[in-house]
Design brief:
Blueprint lengths: L2 H11 L1 E8 H9 L3 E2 L2 H4 L6 H13 L6 E5 L5 E5 L1 H10 L44 H9 L1 E8 L4 H12 L7 H12 L1 H11 L2 H7 L3 H5 L2 H14 L8 H13 L2 H22 L6 E3 L4 E3 L4 H13 L1 H4 L5 H12 L3 H6 L6 H15 L3
Parallel strand pairs: 2-4, 3-5
Antiparallel strand pairs: 1-5, 3-4, 6-7
Helix pairs in contact: 7-8, 8-9, 8-13, 9-12, 9-14, 10-14, 12-13, 12-14, 12-15, 14-15, 14-17, 15-19
């Protein structure tokens, strides 16, 4: 197939349109449920107050705003796929953003002072009461609502995978803080039912205790990252031609397309972390110091890739052993004394090189 043929074929798959719309028009679409913000996406709305204030300042000063991207659904509605932070900031400031869980209106936000507009300090859209002076005047409200945003529309027949691919490309420059947050949104787009399975597993009691992810780590979606890595590494051998993030992206979406596959891995996940916790409690993925005869330190990538995935890839055989817990505990304790493990964690070792070795090593090491 020639390059031009490939280009022509791909263009049929991706159809776009472009509108310039006022903020007032976009807000009305949201109120009339013609602009959809997926509730699972909304959980990821986490701009800090200073970021929200700078964005509102940009609108007031007429500074160009990057385009908003939406996906046209079969029902003709627009589903927001890029611009969550911007649209949510506008709606929250105007007191129109509904909570993802309760569907109740969230309180109107107050702004911080900015470098160009220090008087924005404590300013709100309409004030908290009639005596509140820190609010936009009617002319300021009208001007704000007339400000225009560029909306790019991904139209049918673009399929859900095209929507996912576009979302990843849009966010590859970091408009969402981490690759994992981009991945979360992408999985929601492809199969929200699968995302709920992953989210439930991220809150599994045994996993939560064994992974030892802190509250700060939870805010950064570290639990979901851990779960998605487990799914990808348990099912697929790492291919070093891919970047680590690309490998996870590719295979987590492949898994999302096959319900039988992800339900099977879900069962493996639950069995693995139930066994690990029963074996060594919350210490199961920590290093074991033979001299001190105790577990030490935190839980790193090697523990996930070689211990958790190693156990998972052998779980059916391990649980058939007369004393599975003893077998796993002895293997975990001896694992951290192996010379190879030091090489996996040495400085300068890339994630690609490490994964090429840790996954097969763990599978062999925990084979009964």
């Amino acid at each position: 197939m020639s390059l031009q043929t490939e280009i022509d074929k791909a263009r049929v798959q991706v159809r776009t349109d472009e509108y310039g719309m006022s903020i007032g028009e976009i807000v009305r679409m949201y109120e009339q449920k013609e602009l959809i913000i997926n509730p699972s996406f909304q959980r990821l709305f986490r701009w800090e107050d200073h970021q929200k204030s700078k964005f509102i300042e940009s609108i007031l000063l007429g500074i160009p705003i990057p385009p908003i991207f939406v996906f046209e659904t079969r029902a003709g509605e627009w589903e927001l796929i890029d611009g969550l932070q911007r649209i949510s900031t506008i709606l929250e400031f105007m007191g129109l953003l509904r909570d993802a869980k309760t569907n109740r209106l969230r309180p109107s936000s107050r702004l911080n002072a900015t470098s160009y507009l220090p008087s924005l300090s404590e300013m709100s859209w309409a004030g908290r009461d009639k005596d509140d002076q820190k609010k936009f005047s009617k002319p300021q409200q009208f001007e704000f609502q007339r400000a225009r945003l560029n909306v790019q529309i991904l139209k049918r027949p673009s399929d859900v995978h095209t929507k996912f691919d576009l979302f990843q490309r849009l966010n590859s420059g970091g408009s969402i803080a981490t690759p994992q947050e981009v991945r979360n949104c992408a999985v929601i787009m492809v199969n929200e039912k699968f995302f709920r399975v992953l989210d439930d597993l991220a809150n599994d009691t045994n996993f939560s205790k064994v992974s030892r992810i802190t509250e700060a780590g939870e805010i950064k979606q570290k639990k979901l990252e851990f779960v998605m890595r487990f799914f990808a590494f348990t099912k697929f051998d790492f291919d070093p031609k891919y970047d680590v993030e690309e490998f996870i992206d590719k295979h987590i979406i492949e898994i999302a397309d096959h319900e039988d596959m992800y339900l099977q891995i879900k069962e493996t996940f639950l069995q693995t972390f139930q066994l690990l916790f029963a074996t060594a409690g919350a210490d199961a993925l920590r290093r074991y110091d033979r001299q001190a005869r105790r577990f030490i330190g935190g839980v790193g990538q090697v523990a996930l890739e070689a211990v958790a995935v190693g156990v998972a890839r052998n779980i059916d055989e391990i649980i058939q052993l007369p004393d599975a817990r003893r077998f796993v505990l002895e293997r975990i304790k001896s694992f951290w004394s192996e010379e190879d493990i030091k090489n996996f964690s040495a400085s300068g070792v890339t994630g690609t090189k490490r994964l090429s070795e840790t996954i097969p090593y763990g599978e062999d090491y925990f084979e009964p």
